[in-house]
Amino acid sequence: MGDIKAITFDLWDTLVIDDSDEAKRAEQGLRSKFDERRHLLWEALNTTEPIELETVRLAYNVGDAAFNKVWKEQHITWHIAERLRVILNGLGRELPDEIFNAVVRAHEEMEVDIPPDAMPDAVPVLERLARRYKLCIVSDAIVSPGSCLRRLLENHGLAKFFNGFAFSDEVGHSKPHRSMFESAAGQLGVEISEMLHIGDRDHNDVKGPQQLGMKAILFTASRDVDKTNTSADAICESFDKLEAAIDRLNA
Q1: Which is the CATH superfamily of the domain at 6-20+117-249?
Q2: Fewer CB within 10 Å, N side or C side of the chain?
């Protein structure tokens, strides 16, 4: 292992606090994202032929289960359009292109319109790290695609610190698949072994990178369920302690 030349960051629960937008939605009297997605499809279907909300909910749940199986077992994250087509196939229904595309767009932009919060202290720490290392995002795109996740990061003032972005919907695989980290290394012009990864999930963000010869830090500021059972080279609980942890690993 040579010196660390680049650092890759997970997005959800590392740079941005997952589901911290739900409280904002509730304050505005809006449905949860889970309910709103089902409602969007139900409303769209009702424009052409009546259907029960519960029927749509059940089909949507089956579609989510199929997505999760493919994500976990094959390391592929279907685009939201693919997921919605699976659900429509299950219902034996179709939607006109214009209506279908509007439903897709509403799904994709939900977390841009009402954004989850950035992790505290991320901006000053990333600003300093960006002077010393090449930085890249390596993140699964579950509902919001990479194009919208870039906008989310831009709106939080975080995107400018990164030299590259490897989003699963654009790479074609999700973590911990090698191609995600190969994409990052290629964009940054470094070897995989010269990168350090930081993220909150032991399986995807620690064991995955370690199997490729990388070092990995488990980040527990928002999600800490893996901290008692991790092979991470370091555990870090906040951004203000991150630089010291990186320096120790790179000593």
Answers
A1: HAD superfamily/HAD-like (3.40.50.1000)
A2: C
